[in-house]
Structure formats: structure tokens, C-alpha cells
Amino acid sequence: MSCTCAVHEAIETARGTCCSRWGCGAKGVAQRCLLPDSALGSSFVAGWDLETKILEAVLMIRAVMGFLAVAGLALGGFGGYFIYLGGEVGSWPVTEGEVVTTRIRTELEVSGGTTVTKAARDRLRQHYPSITYRWTVDGESYTGSRYRLGATHEKFDTRAEAQAAARRFTPGTKVPVYYDPNSPSQAVLDPSATFVIYVPLLIGLLFLVTGALGLRYAEAIEQASAEKELASE
Q: Which of 87, 163, 189, 220 has its CA 20 to 30 A from that of 117?
């Protein structure tokens, strides 16, 4: 007597009973065998326990890698648009804006979980001016704080250097504002593009490739498990 399902094929016990730890379910969905473990040989049960763990691992790998692949596609699409925007920003129209506020921000360039001394933290601190400004297009007033597409103002090792750079942007100072003609609420003070605009696309491609390789790896594990099972029958 043989049993055929989406998970395993030609499963036949010495009793002639079609059963397994994971049996035939609707549309290939695995379901538990209704026979007690005592009705099956101990080696048979142990073997199916191992197969169950392999299948669970494969399903987990598929889920994680599938998510990475989808996230990679989405991030890659956004990255492509971001690169396109970086190429367009240099030709955006310019209007006169006004600085509203300027403050000095400080970032600590340390990876998460890294322990450093106070002296090292002082050396790793980066300072830069953060500028809020407003501008008007076709009678509509907007406020923003983006300095450059995908990047902040240049960062400095000392707060004094950042303060010196910020003197160009004291509140009330008139500044040229480059805005997106298709979406005037999007603007920058510096229209130059940096390598940062390529980062989303590169990360997206990394996720996509990792996800695709992971799915192929899961398929290889599943195929090897099936071949081993058929060979042992």
C-alpha cells in the first residue's frame, strides 16, 4: 500500500499502513499522523522527527529569504528613483529662501554594542549645523531642513568648526533654495549629489541577491532530503 502527498512520496511501512509523522494534507499542507508512535518503529519515528526538523528549517529559511528578496526589490526600486532624483536635483529651479533656525547637532560614530573610552568617544564625535529654512513657490509657503539630497551638512571633528560653518546660516539670512518643480515641498540648500544616493540601491541589491541565494539553498536542502528518503525506502 503506498501513500503519495506533496511532502513525501511512496511512503510504505512494514505493516502496509500508509502513514508518516507528516502525512498528506489538503493542498500539500502537512498534518500529523493519526497513528500513535507505538504503532510505528522507533527508528521510523526518529527518522521522521529528523525529517520534521529539516522541513521546519527549510520553511523558516524560505520565509526569511523570501522577505529579504521582497524587501530587496522594494528598496532597489526606491534606490533607482533616488539615483534619478540625484541626477535631476542639479537642474531644479532656485528661489530665495530664509533661514528660520540653526543649531549644532552632534553624532557619535560608533557601531552599536561597541564599548569605547571617554577619550575615544570625544574623538569619534562629529558636529554639523542643522538648518531649518522656509521658501515660497507660487504663493505657497514651505518649511524644510534638508541640506543635501541624502546627506547632512559637512561634518566637523570639533564643535567650534561646526559653529563657524553655521555663521553663514544665522536666522533671517537669505539663502538660495533649490526645489523640485513637480513637488515644491521637496527642496535642498546644496544641489550637489554625493555617493549616498547610491546606498539604497546597493543595499536593495544585496538583500535581493541574498534572498535569491537563500531560496535556492532551501530548495537544495529539500531536494537532498527527498533523495535521501527515497534511497532509504
A: 163
